[in-house]
Design brief:
The protein is of the alpha/beta class and 149 residues long. The protein has a domain at 63-137: Nucleotidyltransferase, domain 5 (2-Layer Sandwich), CATH 3.30.420.270. The protein contains three helices and five strands; from the N terminus they run H-E-E-E-H-E-H-E. A five-stranded mixed beta sheet has the order 3-2-1-4-5. It is elongated and about 105 Å long.
Length: 149
């Protein structure tokens, strides 16, 4: 709070900064932080599961669907047109059902540059064909996430 003592000329401007509003705002912010921080740090205690990376078992009956960066689909190592993919998947799932065997697993490998649209289309085709299990194959982490080696 500024207070002038003595005589001052009427035409001169006061050059002191009034810090009272600044101090008031800072005290209000301090009180808000003191009240909200304990609320934020309280959480429900949970025993979360630990992630375990298990290597994929590649069985002979498993089918690997690969999608390159251009959206081309490969059945194991044979290129398959997207139009024929649904019929091919249906044939495999129906053959397993006729023989009383469990469906083969479909392992989906996609290039990291591929558009999600192409991956989504393959998943929708697998769903329409009645596939029970689709697994996504990725490269394992080598140390810190996002770091390249």
């Amino acid at each position: 709070m500024a207070m002038s003592v003595g005589q001052a000329e009427e035409g001169t401007a006061m050059s002191d900064i009034n810090t009272t509003p600044l101090v008031d705002v800072m005290l209000v912010l301090l009180i808000i932080f003191l009240i909200t921080i304990p609320v934020i740090t309280r959480t429900i205690k949970l025993d979360l599961p630990k992630a375990v990376n298990e290597p994929t078992e590649t069985k002979p009956e498993n089918i690997i669907l690969a999608i390159d960066k251009n959206g081309q689909v490969y059945w194991n190592e044979l290129r398959v047109p997207r139009e024929a993919l649904l019929d091919r998947i249906k044939n495999v799932t129906m053959a397993a059902a006729r023989e009383g065997k469990t469906q083969p697993e479909f392992h989906l490998r996609a290039d990291k540059e591929v558009r999600y649209e192409f991956v989504g289309r393959v998943i929708v085709l697998a769903q329409r064909a009645g596939v029970a299990k689709v697994g996504f194959i990725t490269e394992p982490d080598r140390g810190v996430r996002g770091a390249r080696r």
